[in-house]
């Protein structure tokens, strides 16, 4: 789905502009676009997403999830690697 396309509201089934869609829908659309641009095999993308999901679930269980992405361990590790 492209960003200019609309989502349908679950309540009334009317299109909702992406800018007004819930944050998780906007993020999902951004991730889909990013992953499609990489032109990787679907199995590779799904394997990577499984790793990401496990990491974020671990953060949530350990109480390390934060509204500030810079506070999350995966981002800290990426920042340290970039230095």
Textual characterization of the structure:
This protein has about 80 residues and is mainly alpha-helical. It has 3 helices and 2 strands. The protein has helices spanning about 25-40, 40-60, 75-80; strands spanning about 5-10, 15. The protein has a two-stranded antiparallel sheet. It is flat. The mean pLDDT is about 80.
Question: Which descriptors apply to this entry?
Answer:
flat, 55% helix, 83 residues, mainly alpha, 3 helices, two-stranded antiparallel sheet, 7% strand
* Main β-sheet, spatial strand arrangement: 1-2
User: Number of helical segments?
Assistant: 3
| Amount of beta strand | 5-15%
Task: Give the C-alpha Rg.
Answer: 16 Å
Shape estimate: flat
- The amount of helix comes to 55-70%
How many extended strands? 2
Give the SSE map:
Elements: E1 6-8, E2 15-17, H1 23-38, H2 42-61, H3 73-82
Antiparallel strand pairs: 1-2
What's the short story on this structure?
With 83 residues, the chain is mostly helical. Helices cover 55% and strands 7% of the residues.
């Amino acid at each position: 789905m492209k960003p200019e396309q609309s989502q349908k509201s679950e309540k009334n089934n009317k299109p909702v502009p992406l800018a007004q869609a819930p944050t998780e829908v906007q993020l999902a659309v951004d991730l889909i676009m990013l992953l499609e641009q990489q032109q990787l095999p679907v199995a590779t993308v799904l394997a990577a997403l499984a790793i990401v999901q496990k990491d974020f679930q671990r953060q949530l269980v350990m109480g390390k999830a934060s509204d500030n992405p810079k506070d999350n361990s995966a981002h800290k590790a990426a920042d340290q690697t970039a230095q």
